[in-house]
Structures are given as structure tokens and as C-alpha cells.
Batch of 3 targets.
Target 1
Amino acid sequence: MSDPHLHIESLSKSFGTVEALKDVNLTVQRGAFVCLLGPSGCGKTTLLRIIAGFEQPSSGRLLLDGSDITGLAPHRRGFGMVFQSLALFPHMSVAENIAYGLRLRKASRQEQKDRVEELLNVIELPHIADRPVSALSGGQRQRVAIARALAIRPKLFLLDEPLSALDAKLRDNMQIELRRLQQSFGVTTVLVTHDQTEAMMLADELVVLSHGVVQQSASPTEVYRHPATPFVADFIGSANLLPATVSPNRTLALLGIDTGVTVPSVTVGALRAAVRSEAISLARSTDEGATATVTFARDLGPVTEWLVQAQGHEIRVRGASHAAAPQTGDRVALQFDPDRISIFAE
Amino acid sequence: MSSTTLTQKQALAFATPAFIALLPFLGACLYILRFSLSAEKGSIDGVSLQAYRDLMTPFFGRSVWLTLKLAFVASAVVMLLAVPLAFLLTSLRSAAARRLLTVTILLPMILNLLVQAYGWILLLGPSGALNTLLKTLGLIDRPLFLLFNETGVLLGLIQTSLPLAVFPIVGAVRAVSPEHLEAASSLGAGHWRILRDVTLPLLRPPLVGAASIVFAFNASAFAIPLLLGGRRVQMMGVAIRDMISPLFNWSGAAAAGTVLILLTVLVLVVSAWLVRITTQKTGG
């Protein structure tokens, strides 16, 4: 089912002495929703701007359907883009904003009108065509910006943190809306975000970046369950990173507790393990061997979060709330889910 | 109010010295207004509209028309020159080139006006550099008269008022969000299309503001029409001076001055109103 649409080939970008992107290789499948995810300054926006044509890479190539578009001017690429500031034209009405790309393509008046109407229906705002942009709410502007980008039937749909200005509830709704729109248009989409929940909600494929390097590129589930690097483990869902030792029978021990996970015999040197907070369970214990103490517990309703102090490490644990759950000050025994441990060489 | 750093009271206190400095000017305006309504030509005495009635002559009418025409043409030409210069200033990457261009544009403000006027005469006068060159090349038989007529005054007005327009426009061009331009670009607009469809419309309010300043400056010009127009180009500034200096018609000069102020204010109000209604229509 592989149908590559956009291919990014050993792409690098430097600003002066700062390396913003280092040897990025990426293939985006046709119709896929790809999220570029990482902390601020990781290079995700630079990568999107290079795809859009607003920046030129220092080296490397961009291939769209096999043809090289690296040097193509942005206005010849035919990509629809939604900007962080939305960048709706304040001197044009909603309809004029949406029709602008079609006007540039010399579409007939009727064609423009029909397309604007169609898109306003898709974004469920059929009555705002003649309103000035300044009269719209934040969520409405958002939808109009998306409609303007989709009106040109873009080859690629690019979004630069488009939801970051919205409040939490509206953002949730827009995420669902965006995913629905993307699927109904079947347009290949690249979205930049620093919000891992948003990325996991939207993406078919997550591309995690740090310091200009692609750390991992895989489905959200894969990235969450099998993080490729300690950075990914920590950034996505904040895992506990713990020093690990190998017992004589080549199983992994964390904080002196044998997890039963077999370590491949090729691994040498110091190891670290990432364990998700929900992959650890706690049991109240009076056993002398239990060296962990609950320092903080908060009941969030369906789940409870604990902070546990053990051998100088602070460990986050998350599990179902129940009446017998350990409280602050309790001594506890830790148990790790062996299927949910990722091992990294130091 | 949270966006401003000073409360209204604090700002009032801060601006008090400036406000006091403006008071004499306001007083002078009121004094001129009162003088224009005087029944006597040389002193304030009685109330009469005679001074205004005396202005209703073909001579003064031509002067008003000439003033509005020259100020309008000069402002239009200045805007046509200032907009590209402002774009050039904001796009120059070398700081040295930027400074050089800034100083060049500012020269008319730095240089003494008399020196500039004599420069024009040396360059454009009947036996000046340009005429000599054209004659040597055999392109003309008799010298072109570029000075001491409307052309000369127009050149002078354009030169002196250009810096007034360029620098406000530079600020406005810098303030245009690059994302608006990139949005237009992603939708398929080339550079000139972006300029026409997005940049210039976004710049309209500051452009009209700059044009208004230039117009007011040129309509009230006095030294330039006197130096480069001689007596032949009777812009209102020159006409008013002639009423005072050889004729001692103080109330007439005051009435003409009042007319000039009102005309200028009228033009500024109308242009501001035009910006407001056109921006509302398209929803700025």
C-alpha cells in the first residue's frame, strides 16, 4: 500500500553557524496525515517552511511525485498553508479570502462562488461569506483559514501550529474537525505542533524532531510503545528514565528489581530503561525490602497519579483509582510491566 | 488600557510642557482668525467680513487653485517616489547601503534651503548645466525654462517633502506581517501580485497618512515658491506675504491665511474619511 507522495532526501539547513536541520530523510505517503513534533527550536517549523518553499535548504532535495521541487518558488508549488497567525487578509471579506487562490488561477466568477459556498458548507459556517474577517471569532477565523488553504485543491496541506491560539475546549473540537476534513478531502497533510496530545490525536505518522535531527518516524502507537531514543520516550508521554543493570542470567533489573526482561547478549556498557508511568504498579508493603516511599498522590477521578521516591529517583506512577490505593507516606513495592520497558544503551 | 504604560493622568502630566509650548500657536491662530474679521486693514477694529469679500477676486482664486494643484501634484509624485524608496530601504541587506540611502533621502532636510535653491539654479537655470548639455548635444536651440515657473516650484516641493513621506512608509512596510505575504504566495501570487493585492491594501492607511502630511506641508509652502518660482508663481504663501509686505493689508493676509488653514484641514478630513469608509466596506 506504499504510495510515496513527498520525499525529503538528506536535507540540511544552517542559519549562519546554527544547524537547524541535519540530514533529514522522510517519505510522506499519499493522503497521510503527518505531524512534525518536537520542542521549540527543534527545527520542525524550518522543515515545514522548506517544504512550503519559504526557505531554501542548505543541501538535500525535495521530491514531489518523483520530480525535484527544491528550487521551485512557493507560489508555483500549489500547496495550501495555514499559518500560526492564520494570516487572513484583513482587507478582504471571508468569501474574498477563500476565493483569492482561485482568483489567481483565473477561475470564473461562478466557479469561485460555487467553491466558496461549498467550503463554507464544509466548515459549517454557510452564512458568513460577506462578513469582514474582523467580525469573526477565533474558531471561525481558524476554519476560514483552513477553507482558504483547501479551496485551491492543494497538492499538500501544510499547517504551522494552527490551533495553538485557541482555548483548550475549542482546540479539542477543532482537532476532530481537522481530522475529519483531512480525511474527506484525502489531502496529504503535514502539521507542525509542539503538543504531543494533539499530534497523537491527528497523525497517521509522527515525526519526532530534536535539535534538527529526526529521532523517530512512525505511527503514534509505535512511537508511544517503542520509543526509539530516550528523548522520544521522555518527550512523548514523559516516561521514567531509569538506570538499568543486567543480572547474571541476562535479565534487566531496575532499582534492584528483576523485571524478567531478557537483554540481548550484544548489548554492552551502561543501560537505561524507559518505563511509562502506567506500566508501573504499586502495592502497599511492610516488607523490609521495599525501599520506595510515596511522596505525593493525587486522585484525578478515573486515575490516580503518584510520585514515588526510590533509591534517589523520583518515579511517576499512574493507575486506576481505587479505595485501597497507596497514600502519601506509604511504603510500597514497585512492579514493572515487562512488555512496556524500552532499553537504551547509554 | 492595560496595553499602555501610562494612565491618562500620568500622560497628561508628562505632556504638560509640550502642551504649554503649543498654546502660543493656538493663540496665534485665534489672533489671525480675529484679525481676518476686522473692519480695518491695519488694526483689529470692529467686526466685518470685508477682508473675505475682498479676497473674491480672480487673482486670489487663481492663487487658491494653483496652491491646491501644485500641492496635489507634488504629493502624488512624492508618493510615487517614496513607496519604491521605502521598499528599497526595507529590503537592502547591507547596513552601509541602507545608511547611505537614508542620508541621501534626508539631505533636503539637512541642507540649507538657500543652498538647495541655488543648486537648482546652477543645474536647471537658463545657462545651467542641463541646458548647456542639451544645447551642446544639439537637442535644443533655445534654453528650456525649468525655473521661475510652476515646473521649478514643483521640483522644489517634491524634493523638500520627499523625506516626510519615505520614513513613515518605511515604518509601515516593516510592520506588515510576513505571514500575510507568505499566505498570498502559497495561494499562488507572485511578487507583483502580492504587492498589488496584499501589501499596498494593508499599507493604505499609513500611505494616506503620509500623503496627508506631504500635502499639508506643500500647500503651506512659502520659501520654495518664492525662491524657485519668483513672483510669477503666486502660491498662497507668497500671495499672503505680498499682502503684508508691500500692501500692509493685515486683515486681508489674515483672511487668506484662514482660508489656507481651512482648505488644508478640509483635504485632510476628507482623506481620513475616505480611508475609514473604504476600510469598513472591505472589513479591515
Target 2
Amino acid sequence: MKYLNIKLAMASALAITAGMANAETKDITIGMQLEPPHLDPTGAAAGAIDSVVYANIFEGLTRFDATGAILPALAESWTISDDGLVYTFSLHSGVMFHDGTSMDSEDVKFSLDRARAEDSTNAQKALFEGIDTVEALDPTTVRVTLSAPNGAFLFNMAWGDAVIVASESIDDAKTHPVGTGPFTFTNWVQGDSITISKNADYWGTPARLDGATFKFISDPTAAYAAVMAEDVDAFPNFPAPENLPQFEADSRFNVLVGSTEGETILSTNNKMPPFDNVKVREALAHAIDRQAVIDGAMFGLGTPIGTHFAPHHPDYVDLTGQSNYDPELAKSLLAEAGYPDGFETTLKLPPPPYARRGGEIIAAQLREVGINVEISNLEWAQWLEQVFRGYDFGLTIVSHTEPMDIGIYARPEYYFQYDSAAFQQLMEDLNDATDPDARSVILKSAQRMIADDYVNGYLFQLANPTVANANIVGLWLNAPTQANDLTAVYWND
Amino acid sequence: MLRYSLKRLMSLGLSLLAASAVIFLAIEVVPGDPASYMLGINAQPDTISALREELGLNVSALSRYVTWVTGMLTGDFGTSYTYRTPVVDMIGDRIMISLPLAIYALTLSTLIAFPAGILAASKRGSVTDVSIMGATQLGVAIPNFWFAMLLVVVFSINLRWFSAGGFPGWDEGLFVGLKALTLPAIALALPQASILARVMRSALIDTMNEDFIRTARAKGLTRRQAMWRHALRNAMIPVLTIIGLQFSFLMAGAIIIENVFFLPGLGRLVFQSISQRDLIVVESVVMLLVFAVVLVTFLVDIAYAAVDPRLRGRS
């Protein structure tokens, strides 16, 4: 009897604690490897800023959804003139910034004009370049006139760099961001975490979570420990892929492996001999065994690509066969190009593991066909200076994480220095085209053109592995832009 | 004693001035531009130059050095390039973790090392001595980051007594704060305690062989009495030196442990700032650490004089 009583007492105590746990799980703790330098998405390139604020704190005229499609956000609807030059946006009415000031057409005008101003420090200023004028017609109507048609304009307005900010609060946005989103900024313990809470006065569908904490854990082993100890509830872009099987085997966790916008490429200095010879670049492409790189450097995570385009995009063309692994072919191409004994070059690697680990494997593969590479490991700041701005490199490995960035191949001064009039024309055509079918045709031929020219070695699309508590619903699988959109996330009881 | 202190103080000032120049020069030659780093690979050249202007990077190195040094004298360390907050506040936040952690670890290490060292010295050659020395040998050999991970596996992942890392802030209460620092402090203290115990033991044994101990013993003191009354105080000089060095190390060198436990301490701030080319933060933190090392050395010098009157006369 006594024994039974104890058991009953224990059972009810357990029930109470379980009930309490359910009632309390209205918050979420998200692990992030990098801490944002500040919280103004319009003033730096750091993806970590968007990971905290995109869709949660700040919103733009349009936005990306989990699949990368463009949805209306602060703009309820829009009309486009027949010549593709004039966009008239109707804004939602009654939208408030978190500080209680109202969001209207003047704020949109302020935000766009600020981003394209002479002294703007917007890291993606090119997104706004085509804008000729921005006019606030009435509080909920904005007219944007472009100087030339730009089929990607609505896409551009969905970027985190194009969010709508208020003149009243922008000066403090770096440490105290004030937006229109479903969450408000609460606190930042620098070096440790950022907390946001639900915005009770949100204009749209309110968030289901009461709040969220972003916790910064840079070390992969520490990230593993934090998830295992359930200190964090979800860790998107989990930095220790080698531990994923362990989480998969544990019923407490859910492992999601999605895709990102990160085309990981063996960037080639197209102006530097011998890489100015397309035969040499073709040989390079056939010398690389992509799957070995994916398996060795990324623990099998990543989708092989044969061109600079995201495989999950509907317009993607699979061109991996065109640069299949064939070391014998690579050797004969090198001989044809006048390098029967190979040559020596540099391979400069930035810090991420895909580059450092992938670099070792690629160096070994290139050695097989006679290309001797000298590896040097650089920090990001050095990489930007030497490789990106200084053009002082033969080869480098980098993941281009901006969405839909095939347009970089139309910039002859861009660090890999591909200069093709035909491609530049193609991108102009793309800008002029607003019809989705026409755009699709152009995008496909653009992918083929850079694959035919073997501009760079196309390796793989970076994966987005997320480890999360099995009861969390609504996290993004893919990462069409760097974001942790928590608007639809909730706990399954 | 006063003259001795003044002399030490002057050398402290000179060391700091020299250090500031060396630090500034060393960091100036590091390649990489903070503005380019912040704006990333899609930024346009005019955007970068607008940001450089905003950050005050477009002025000469000499004038930046002068601004920096004179600012520091008035307690103004400038504004971080990346975080855009005053460096003083950033350092202040981080010190509130690094300093308590260093003190916590040093306290633990002293509490372990003193009894262990004294016990081993007084029972020299015994089983106790051999096992203590064996244990310290192991303590020195185990890398502290590995030991830290072991602690996390046992106490965070399996037993769930502690969280795997992070720091909730002192606002949550003293106990919560100390609890968050416990595993890191233990991980830091273990190798330090082992070193300190070995030094304590050998210093004590050396002192016990000195003539004045033989005299004390001849006066009729037992070995034990001689040790507690005379030898211990004299053995403190090398021990203090080690404690001083360890404290400086713990302030600046806890970076690996800070990474394992994702603690926002000074070490991680420096590490982060270097990769972001947030040079003003690097300069200021390094300067502060130099100041801490120099200050601790100064205090140790003063402590030497307190335990050993001969040193006062020599100056």
C-alpha cells in the first residue's frame, strides 16, 4: 500500500512537471555559429544579421518564403506598367513600427532612397541601382520608377538588405533594431545571445511562439554538446555534419537536410595564364571528382552542380555530366593546351571547412593530372584583399551564398574575371524580360554558357543541415536566403 | 618600501607606453580592411569608401595612434568598427566574465595545490607523495580543452547537472552565474593546480634544506613546526611568481576554454575581432591584457617585498 502511494505520488509529480514543461515551451532557443556584428540588415553583408532579423524583426515590400518564392509582405499588392518601368505598390494600412510610429509610404521612400544614396553603406547597393525615382503618392501607395526594365526587381526587394526602416529609429538600429515584424527586439548579451519577443500588435498573422533566443556557439564540438544537453532547441546550418547520424538515431531530435543558395565553386582566375585557355579550365573540370569532395569534406552532404545555379530552382539544368570526372581526358586536354607535364599554381583557401577540407582533396586530385597546387590558408579579411580585390590567385574555393547570383558572370571585373560579351548580353536580356517563360529560357542558356566556357570548377550546392527538437514544427528546410523565419514555428505538444 | 614601490610603478608606466606602440604597429601591418570585411563580396567600391569615411579610417596612422592613446588615458577606448558600440562597454561586459572566471579558477587551483604540495613535501618519498606527484603529472599532461569536453559529456550531456556552456549573465543571480562558470573553472584549474602543487612541493623541500631551517631545528623545533613557522613563508616566492603568471594566463589565455563552453569572455572577443579586422577592439583588449599582466607583475613584486624584507633593501 505504502509502495503504491509512493508510486502514485511520483506519477502525479511527474504529471505536474510534464504539464509545466508544456506550458513553458512557448519559447525557442536557436543555435547560431556566428554572432551578428550588429542588427541593421541594411548596413553590412554579414548573413548572421539576417539570420536574426529577417522576417522576424524587419520586413520589406516583398519577402522570400521557405521555397525561395517571392510573396507580398508590407506591400499588399502591386501593378507593373507595360513597359516594365513603373511599379506601383499598395501598402498594408495600419502597420506600426515597434516603437509605435506608423509605417507608411514615406518610410518606404526613405528606406529605398537611403539605400541608394551616395553615402549609403548598403552592402548590396546594386539591388537598388536601377531605381530612378521613389514617390509617396498617398500614405499607402508608393510608385517606384526604374531607369531600365528589371525583371528581378520584386526579387531584389525581398532581400534582407531592402527591408523598410523608419527615419526615427534607424540611427539606433545597429544595437536596437525597430522594424514592423512579428517579433520585437528584447535584449542582446553580446557574445552570448539575442532575445526577441512576440509583437502583440503585429499587423499580419501573429507568431505562435512567445519569444526566441538566438545563442551563439562557434565551436562545432560545443554546438554538438549544446544540442545534446538540450540547451538549444534547434541548430540550423549545424556545423558538425560528422555528428548528424548520432542525432538521427536519437528520437529526441529531428534532422532536416535542406539546400542553400550556396554554390560552392573552385573559382578560377580567368585572366591568369594558363587559366585564360579554355582547354586548361576544361581539363581542370574533368580532373575533379565532385563526389569524393562531397564525401570527404562535407560528410556526404551537398548536391553536385555543373553550373552556377541552385539545383532546387525550377530553372536549374543539370550539367554535371559535361564536367564528369575523367582524369585521362584531363591529361590529354592539358597536353593539347601545351601543358603535357602540367603546371604549378596557387590555391588560396578561406576559413570555412568546405574550403579547407575540400582544398586538400582537390589538390590531391589535381596532382593526379600533373597540376601542382600550392595551398595557402587565408583568413576572410586576407582573402578579400588578396583574392577578391587583388586578383592575386590561381584557384580558390568559395561558396557564393547570395540567391540567384548568376549575374556576377556579367561583371568582367568580378574576381574570377570572366569577360564574355555574349553572356553580358544575356543578362541584359534577362533584366528586360518580365515574362516568366522568357526569363526561364534565358536563365537556362546562361547556365549552359558558363558551363561551356568552364569558367569555374563547379563543385556542389552547400547543404543546410538542421538539428532540432523533434517537437518543433515549421522551421525552414531550405535556406533560400539566410534567415531563421520563426513566424510559423510552434511546439507540437 | 615606498621607494621600491615607486620604482616599480615607473617601470610599469614605461612598459605600458612601449607596449602601446608595439601593439599599434603590429596591428597596423596586418593586412585586411575592416570595411571590406563588413560589406562582403557584393559591395561596390564607393560603398566601401563611404563606410571607411564613417569609421574614421581615412586619416593617417599617426593621428589614429595619438587619438587612441590619449583617449585611453581618459578612459575612452573608441568605438568598435563592427559592433558600433563603445569598446569600453564591450570590454566591461567581457571582463565581468573573464575576471570572475580567472579568480574562480585560481581559487580552486590554490585550494587544491597548497594542501597537496605541502602534504607531498612533508611526507616526501611516502606513498602519499608519490601518488600526489603522479596525479599532478597527469594533470599537467591532460590538455585542458580535452578535460573540458570530458566534463561536458559527463556533467552536461549525461548527468544534466550543468548546461553545456553559455553564460546567462549576472542579472540572473550570483548562484546562476557561478554555476555557469563552474565547469570552465574546473577545466582551467586542473592543470594550473598540478603545476602549482609541484612548485609548492619542490620550493618547500628546497627551503627545508636551507641552513636557517637546520638552525631552527637545532633550537628544538620539530620538522613540522619548522616548516609551518619558517619554511612555508620562504617557499612562497616561487609560488607567488607562478600564481602571478597563472593569473595573467587565465585572463588572456582562457580562449580555448571560452570556445568549448561558448563563454563571451575577453579571449573570444579578441579572437573574433581579429578575424573581423575590428582593429580598435584588438588593440584595446591587447593593451588591457598587457596592463593586467604588468599590474599583476607589479603586485607580485610588491608581495615579494612583503614576504621577503631583503628585497626591499636591495632596491
Target 3
Amino acid sequence: MTRLELQSATELGRKIAAREISSRETTQYFLDRVEALNSRIFALNLVDGQRALELSDNIDKRLQAGESLSPLAGVPMAIKDVLCTRGIATTCGSRILNGFVPPYDATAVEKLLSAGLVPIGKSNMDEFAMGGSTENSAYGVTRNPWNLACTPGGSSGGAAAAVAAGLAPISIGTDTGGSVRQPAALCGVCGMKPTYGRISRYGLVAFASSLDQIGPLAHRVEDIASTLQILAGYDQRDSTSLNEPVPEYCKQLDAPIKGLRVGVIREHLEHESLDPEVRAAVERAQLLLEDMGVTMVDVHLPHTKYSVPAYYLIAPCEASSNLARYEGTHYGFRSSAAPQADSPLESMMVNSRSEGFGNEVKRRIMLGTFALSAGYYDAYYKKALRVRRLIAQDYRSAFDKVDVVLGPTTPTPAFKLGEKLDDPVQMYLCDLFTVGANLAGLPGISLPAGQDETGLPLAVQLQAPALDEVQLLNVAYQLQTAGLFQQQVAELS
Amino acid sequence: MHLTTRDVKKVASLAKLAFSESELAHLTQQLGDIVHFVEQLAEVDTDGILEMTHPLDIHSALRADQVNACLPRKDALANSPNSDGEFFLVPPVLGK
Amino acid sequence: MSVPYQVVIGLEVHVQLSTQSKLFCGCPTVFGAESNTQVCPVCLGLPGALPVMNQRAIELAIQTGLALNCEIASVTKWDRKNYFYPDLPKGYQISQFDQPICGEGHLDFPDPENEGESLRVRLIRAHLEEDAGKSMHDEAAGKADSRIDLNRTGTPLLEIVSYPDLRSAVAAKAYLTELRLLLTYLGVSDCNMQEGSLRVDANVNLHIEHNGKTIATPIVEIKNLNSFRAVERALEYESKRQFSQWQQTGAVMGDSPKQTRGWDDAAGVTLPQREKEESADYRYFPDPDLIPLQITDAQLQRAQSAVGETPLMVRRRLQRDHELKAYDADVIASQGRAMVSYFDEALTKGASAKRLSSWMQQDVMRTLNENNWTITEFPIAANKLASLLVAIDDGQLDNSRGKNVFQYFLDRPASDLEEAIKSLGIASVDQAELEQLCRELLAENPKIVAQVKEGNVKGLGALIGPAKKRNPNIDPNLVRTICQQLIDTEF
């Protein structure tokens, strides 16, 4: 039988639409792979095969009846466990949401379902999307399909691993400081964070509201473009969603990029933490672009050094408030510890939170609570918001000179599980090249770029001005076509 | 600033979190490292720079004053750790 | 009675705005629905749900701000006030911290102790926020679980905060009365205290003259004030309590943090509420789920035209343009905007203001009270009442026949003045006929004639009854005048 996991989502969608293969067969094929392989990497923390097959049958029926559906109709996908799915448990990788079954679908999920995609399960993640290794999940650690001793990255580690291991052709992640792009880079798949506000956050369980954005992961750029086409658009249920027209993301993919100006971020390329093999990958991409007639320009983001500190104040501050709702009252986990006699309510809340949250989440709640508290607000939170503007201005100045910027996604390829778990600052520094796009609200995409000498994936990152996803995807697609990477699935034997 | 376990205890009480003494010592050290790390920001001259709360410069997303369907009560209470079918139930504020 | 201290009072008033749906979601705001039936993912604070501002709440807040002479912000924003409580499902309240929709303003209100004079309360701000739900605690022993109803969660509130400008419990009550009247004029709230649409917290302390210095006692916030009467009583009680407390302890402002006390209406005392261990630190910060709101000049103009005439303007107009006394103007104005509209309508149909004011305050209001009607349910239209009053002014009817017509109008809502006059057999009486009637009466009552001749004019009053019996349409004043003339000339 054809190895469907080696095909792009776009190709699978085309075959299903042409009825060369049914959605049910496709879905069953990937469910079989999940059955066989998921236990080795724990990419998915929930699989709902029966529902997936029912949805597939429905798509097949509609296609049989001659209905014309979206190009990805009938294609299986995985949804990060941070997006609300009606009637299906949504845990955010946290014990505190154990058993929580949302009574509603996230807007993104609604859109995917109505476009005919077939969710096969929920992908594992760092608890509340806090982390860069998917080790902070209450339900288990996700492993990198290319090397089971390594992390897949995070927080959308399950999403990236699922695509990399061929368990799902597409997965939907979220990116608050790099949580789509970084695991995509570490797992050798494409992962995109669109412009803030491009995709509705309604139903995305908030980590840091002003930074969170949903993004797709897949093997190929055209898959990313088609998925973005489904997800993008204004939603009146999200005040921060952008009421701007949605362009055709697939139309311009193969437009020539000759004459385009692409900037190389010097502060990223020359950073002391950058692995030489990652740097070499960026330089390879640079050469490919030059071959296509692109003008390469050096650009500077002078506040790069401050992006991680600014991010690790703003995100925890917002998180400390966003996560206040988890106190054992209205949904989720309630501690069964005996409450204190003099203040039963207070102790129930404290016990539920203390038992329900993991260490990293608690650290960030503590940090955010501290930075917002009386006497520290100005020096920490407010200061970070001002630096944030300077960082956004850096990007603006860069984009005055160039159309797109190029750089690494991560300082290094995948690191070992456990390696940074007890050293938060080292873990946070892995986000150095990704948090800028979140702080400034810009779109970015991580593309595979070969492998290092140990066989771990390498990656490069492209970023573009707000709402210029068309240009971003165009350059990404041309790099893919020029041979920056081949579609590869990790062989888990 | 230098974070002490006393500072951390105070923050924990605001955040409704409890830590054992050994956790507290470890956490104080880790938070201290992080606070030290983020204090780099003090080097940046931000005089006259406006705080950037939102990545986008948009204003005034409003909805019309229209009533939408509510959740059926059983769905509203379905996820509650404890309810009597009409109310969410929580332990009393005051004990004894 | 003079006391050796000055009471200083500031009030925080929470007003529920009359929107159909909640501040950030489409759930209804109807009072009294079954528990937890007016909720959705947004107001339940479910993970992933997001708030979207209700345009109408913004409009109502701006209208209120304009009527309270507040500066309206050109840009306002939302902040989160973080604290844990089970009736606050998100763990924070969406409120406004440093950029409230309405800035400084003031409200003038009638001075309860000097008729015709007014007092002014300056306002610090008025900001929008979402209401919390309701917690029902086990009153008995605190053993049973508390029950949480989230129907009210997310209902729009406008919190109007005054400076400590009030100097007596009576003045505080008068301010609240005027504020409520203004809000109902605007139609921004039903101000129903029983249903919690208007809630008052009072901050009070004393300035005591002592050894040539002014000493301030610690500020106390009083909660659980469920009526204006309760506000007045609580403030009176609390001033006395603070004075005796000061006499005992000498504690002054700054010696202790602000204390919160609850009003026990049945016992008539304020009682300390349990203090939290740590002082509150709400960690306000801008809500990243909501974007700042720009208020345009066009919005302001629309709001301004919706504000219309305030009670103060009505009082002034009635006094200035229609020469009503301050008291009368206040009675009319205080009945609400619908009553003022009725009054104005009757004026344009020719009723004289003073007669109208008197009829409104007596006959109309009495009828409304007896029937438990509002003016909009009153069966006599303004123009019909005006026709009656014009007829009295013209001498076509006397006052007592006027009351018959009024009753006729009430009984037969479809009738008009002409029909009433006809049905009641009211006809103007010919002068000669009237003279003849008077002559007969005088002849039959020589004792009265004698009394009048001795200078006791009041005796004529006894003739009015018998005169009316012979002809109900006679004008009693005319009967008096003619009888007097006849006595002078013929008897």
C-alpha cells in the first residue's frame, strides 16, 4: 500500500477530492500508525478514532454526492490540547483541567470541522503551553521522533512530533513565544505563527493573551498555506481579532522572488549561543535565495538581547491572571485534601491549585504575580511593556529596508530530555529567536533545513511584516522548491 | 532586588499557592535567578516610550446589545466538581 | 442639636445599567431567573472564552457621565482587578483602573435643610465594570457548602465615586435621591435597590475640633446598605459610634487601616467585617483580551442629545418660566420624567401652571396613589386635563364642578369636556335667574340677613348649600357677591 505519511496534506486532499482514496481509508491509515507508534513518542494524549471515522464517512458521502469541499476536506489532523473541542476533553496538559469537557468548540476548531478536516485526537503539550520541551505535561513526556532521548521542543511538541512521525499530516498548534516554530524546527517540519489577530483566539485556552496565536504545522509550505486559509479571518467573538480581508494564501506561493529584498538578522546569526550547524543551515538558505535573484541585506534588531527578559515578564504577568480561574470551583480539578477548619474555602482553592498545577506553571504564576504586585509593577511589568515597543520598532525599521527577514529558529537542534528542566533561565533562552515575533505581533515560519551530523533536524526561520503572510509563504515555498529541505518522516521502527 | 523566602511566601499567598519549606527554598532560588535575569531590562533607556499592551493598534471592537442563547443549566454545571443541579457548591468561607 | 464634630462622607454608588445583555457577552440581565440559567462560556469564565464590549453599556455610561458633568475620556481602557472569590469565576473582575470612561464631575441637588437652596457633590470618577455572581452562605453555622449562582456575573455596572463632600446623613440621602432621580430621567438604570440595581457603600469619618486643632478619625467603609433610609441611619449611627470610639481610644486617621463595617438594619448598628490577613493587592493591569476604546465626538454628540433635560433643569424651568415655587417645582420634577412630560403637555394645551401644579399634586397624584398607577397609565390625557383647567380659568366651571368633571373623565376615559358638561347638566346660569334665586334665599333666611348686616359676612356660606340644591350649576362666589349686593340694596 502507498505510504500516505510520505505525502503532503495537499496531495492527500487532492486524492480524496478526486476519490482516488477515501477519507475513511486515509483516516484509518493514520489511526493505525497512531496505534502502532504513539506509545513510543506520546505525541497525542487523546485519540478518538471512532469519531474520526464517522467524520470521514460523512466527508466521503458528501464527496460522493458531488459536493465540492475545501482542498483539505477529509484529511486527518491533530489538535493541540489547548483548543476547546466540544464534548471532547481539553486538558492543556494540566492536572487542573483533568476531566474538563468544553461545551463549545474554539472558532478555529469550528472552521476546521466545517472545512471537512478530520480530527483524530489531541496533541500533547507543555502544561498551559508553558515550556519548550513538552516535558511539563501532567499526562506524560513527548519524545522527539528523530531521537527518542531528545525533546521534540515545545510547547506544541506533540503537534510537531505527530507530523514528524507521520501520525497526522497536519496539526494545529499555538505559539506564544515560539511554541509552534521551535518544536517544528526541532522535529523537522514546517510550522507557522501568523500575525497576531489573524486567527481568532476564541476557544484557545489563554496562556498570555497578547502573545498567543494559533498556527499550523505540516510537512510542506503549501499545506501550511491551505490550513491558514481555513483558519484566518475576523471573529466577532474575539475583540483582538483583525477585521481585515483574508488574501488567497496559495495563489502566490510559486510567484518568482527575484528582486525581493531579504534581511539577515545579524544579532541572530552572530549570537554566541548559535550552534555552527544551525548557522550553516541559515547560510545555505541565504545562498539559495541569492541564486533565485534575491538581494540579501544585513538588518539589525538591536534590542534582541532584551526580548527574552521582556517576554518572561509580560507572558507570566498575563498568565498569572489568566490562570486565576483554575481554583477548583466551577470546573476541573478540586483537591480532595481535607480543608482547613477555619477557612475551608480558601484552603480548598489553595490545595486545588497547588496540587493541580505543575512546577513550571507555578513558577510563572509566581513570577507574574510578583511582577504585578504593589511596588514592583512599574519596574518590571511596565518596563517590559516599554521595551516591547522598542522591540517592535526594531522590526519596523528592519522592514523599512527589506520584505522578509531570515535567521535561525532556535539556537541549537533538539536537546536531551531533562537537560534544562531544572534550569529555567537556560530553557527560556531557547526562545531567543522566536519571542520577538510574538512581542511585535508579526508572522513567522520555521522551515526544515536538513539534519545535523547526528541526524537531528535543522531549521531556519522567516519573518515578515504584520499581515504579510502571502509574501512570507511565497519565500518559504520557493526555498522549499529550491531544495532547502525534502519532506521527511522519522522512521520509528 | 534580592528575593527572600518571605517575599516568595507573600507572593504565594496572593497567588493562592502553597509550598513546602523545601520547595520554598528551591523556588526562591529559581525565582531569584529569573528576576535577576529579567532585571537586564533596567539597562534599556525607555524614557518617553509608551507601554505596548497590544501588538496591534486597533480600537473599539464592540458588539450590539443583543441577547444570545445561554447554555442549558446542566451544561453550565456539567464540569463543576460539586453541584446540586442548581448551584455550584463550594466549601464555606468561614469554618467551625 | 449641635455636636462637637463634623461628619465627612463620600459615597460609592454602583448602578446596574439597563442593557438587554451583559457587559461582555450576550446573556440576558433579567432579574430573578432560575439560578445558573443566564450563563455562557464567557460569563462562566470557561477556559478559552473571550469578552467583547457591549456598545449600549458604553453609550449609557457616556450619557450618565455627561449628565453628571463629567469629563468623558477620549480613550478609555479595561483593566483586570485580580482577586479570588467563587462568585468571580475568572479570578479577576474586568474593571477600569486609571483611564475610567468618566472623569471628574459634579452633581447639584436640593439642600434638604434649606428650601430653594442647593448643595454640590464633586465626583472623582465613574467607571464601568462587570458585576460578580451571588454567593449564598449557610447562615447557621458555616458548615454547609455555599451555593454559587452566576446569573448576575458580567452584568454591566457603573460605579460613581464621590469626593467626601457630604456633611450630614440627611445630605447623603438627598444626594442619593437626586442621583437616582437623574438616572431614572436618563433611563440608564431602573435603580431598583431591592434587586440590587443600585448599591451604595459609604465612606465616613469625623473631623473633631479639639484643643484648637482639627482631628480626623479613621475612615470606615460601610457596606450592606439596602435602602436610602438605611444609608441615613447607618451614617447617623456610625458618626456617633466614631465619636465615642475616639473619646475612648483617641485613635485618629492613620493609626489603623481603613476598616470595613456592615450595617445591620434590624439591630440598627454597624458591625466590623472580618479583615483579610494581608491587605488587598489587586494587581490591576490592562486586560489583554480587550482593546482600548476610542470615544469620538460623534458618539459624544449622540449621547448628549440623548441626555435631555435633567431634574435640575426642570426645577429651574418651572420656577423661572412658570413661576412655580421651589417646593412645587421640586414635587413635579421628583415624580420623574414622564410626569414632567405630562405637565408640559398640559401647559402647551393652555393650562395655567399654578392651577395645573395644584391639580397635579392633589387630584392627579392622589388618584395615581389610590390606583397604584404610573402617570403613563393615568386615564386622563394631558390635553383633557388641560381643557378642564382652562374651563375653570375661564369661569365656565367652578372648582367643585371641576372635580365632578375630573371624576367623570376617570370613569369614562373616552369622554371629553363637552360631553362631561352636558352629562353632568352643567350650564352657565343666567344673571337674572341667579338674582332671583338669591332674593328668594335671603327672604327665607332673615337670620342670616341680620347677621350679615351686623358685619358677619361668613353667614352667607350657609346659603351655598341650599343654593346648589336649587341649581347645581351656580357659582358659589357669584352667589356670595349677589347676596351681599342684595342685602346692601334691598334688605
